[in-house]
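Checklist before submission:
- one chain only
- standard amino acids only
- sequence pasted in full

Submission:
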Amino acid sequence: KVAITLAGEGSLSGWAFVIAARQTSVHGFHIRCTQSSSGIYVGDGDNIDSDTTDQNASNCRVYGNLIEGEAFSGKWAVASIGNWSLNIHDNTFYQMLSGGVIVGSGTRVNVNNRIWSNYFNAVRGFGVNAKTGWSVNDLVVGPFNTFNDDITTAMTRSCNFGATGGRKSFVGNYDNTTNGALGQSTDKMCGNYEAAGMNAPIYVTED
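Returned file contents:
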């Protein structure tokens, strides 16, 4: 089985790229999603196709891509489903309906994923969603992610740590959304910036 499959190959349909192997990168693409399609799936091979056994998509990178929904359509820009040590960085996610990045697995454990330096612009749903009921350990969202609401519809949350168990962190982000981030009492956040109206600006000063 090749490391990356294209849309329509295998049993997992609706994704522009599916990564089911280790040390694989996807970068430099402009992916335009319609109502029923999504961007890049990085996950455990057993959940994708019968001939991808034991390929767990560890130590992969998704970076430098523009993934956008066509007129607020499309589902998820990136899905991190049951993998280890995935880096998602320096991407732009624009007008995606369901959200930017979904993390976790109902049958596998996501470990040591890092989501940093991305632009979540006019995304509806969740910027980042560690889904309730899924297993997510040692997830770091940040630093330098920027979350912007659509002008008419706010994100449900910029970041949602619905998954219980395992430490998750929201660190050093620029959260320009109405509803902000939400997690469990065991999750941690620090060094984030929230929005202020330009008619009453707030500046960060240094002594």
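Reviewer check: DSSP finds no helices and 24 strands in the chain.
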